[in-house]
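I'd like us to work through together how a protein chain folds, taking it slowly. To get us started, please write out a protein record for me. Go ahead whenever you are ready, and we will take it from there:
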Amino acid sequence: MKKSMKGFTLIELVVVITILGILAAFAIPRFASLETEARTAALDGLGGSVRAASALAHAKSLASGAAAAASISMEGQVVTMANFYPTADAAGILAALQDSTGFTHAAGVFTKTGATTPANCIVTYTAAGVGGSGSVAVDSSGC
């Protein structure tokens, strides 16, 4: 009577390990670049949110008949205004935005936390000049 053997041979294990190594060599670079893409997507999302917050504050200021520099209230937050648009400070655009989780803010510049080159992974809000509108610029070259 023959005893039946159970388990894998050494050659079968070597082949499986080789195949897994080849798959890992192709998969790891794909997943490694997802961090950069995620930071860029978050930055683009914040850029859209800043534009929307600025437009909503502008619309509310005009609809309420407020003076060009009069503060308005949005969702219980007082938003400071200049030329009917939010100012670039924390009391202006940051108050209108209400949530900037994952970003730091200083003088109208939102920087993505954890960026490779933080100075080049930013959303910049510029307050409106006389007769103009606020502007938003996104730089994702350092994300």
